[in-house]
Amino acid sequence: MPSADRPLTRLTGNQARIAQTLRVLGPSTRAELINATGLSRATVSAVVGELTASGLVIEPGGTAPAGPSGGRPAAVVQLDRSAGLVVGVDVGRSHLRIAVADLAHTIVAEAAERTVPGEESDAAAVLERAAAAIERLLLSCGHTLGDVIGVGFGLPAPVVNPAGQIGSPNIFPGWAGLTPTHELGARLGVPVCVENDANLGALSESLWGAGRGHQAVVYVKLGTGIGAGIVFDGQLFRGVTGTAGEIGHLSLDTNGDICRCGNRGCLELVASGAALVTALHPTRPDVTDLTDLVRLAIDDDAACRRLLADAGGHVGVALGGIVNLINPDRVLIGGELGRAGALLLDPLTASLQRSAVPAAVAALSVGPGILGERAEVLGALALVLREPERLVSPETPDIQAAG
Hints:
alpha/beta, Nucleotidyltransferase, domain 5, 13 helices
């Protein structure tokens, strides 16, 4: 379906304003729409009535709780599924995860696939696989690409400009210089936006997870590599060139080993999943991935527990510096290493508290993310729902670069 035929693109004025607010907030009461838009009660009621009559807005029968002064619960309105769908994609070093949602923030379908180690460096293969998986998932729930108004695409790499170009060839080989917004958009024929995966995890945890209700959230994804996302008042902080949050390449030892980024003594060299598996290899060559390492640590393997404790201590030092700089009120730990729970979190928290100034520590809570392995793909959905201006049209793509 051409973009001009999608229902929301035909709206103007206050109808467009209310529809966009519902897209960002999800199911809302009329009072919430009044607060978010600044429109009068009469205008909101009239516009909601118009959108309901057109079929774009529905009142599904749900209610919001009564306020502190009592009274009847307020009726909730939301965008109908006919308004369109959004798709989220999370590309990792060992997985491809996809989710489909409607504009009322309801998950319609999800799927995940394991990938072969090294496959993530073949951009063309990943893009083809992602495009095919999106179409299969849509078909499985009775939809097509014509129903999709945008795709959010997450990668473990820095996104260095608004067009979605990938930077730093040393961090995610095979993708540097590519613009997946164009590459994937050309394959699907729908607008695409691209974001770093840790940023997406931060966004979803802030909106729907353990960071909800907090003013400044730092989400750290501890997996094969290490990355972080920062959210202030519900908005991602990306920095000037999109590299804010690259905590994995914060140097802990200026005389240390050379990191793949070209720096010395980076956090990734001592606390990433890849570093931990390598460190364990001389005594436990049978442990080849993080899943095994975390499982053995939970089962009381002394070597694995020590590695996690040491890693937590190193991450805590790095986070202490971050806390001193931006003074967040919530730090969340996600990624595969986050599944280790207290084995990682306790030494991490103790190290952070020693490294940060007391006033900052007093205002801070540290805990695990609650969205688990879905955090990044849910963040990709949130990006499309909340920041439609990030979507890049597929009208003039250059897909040759991916080959």
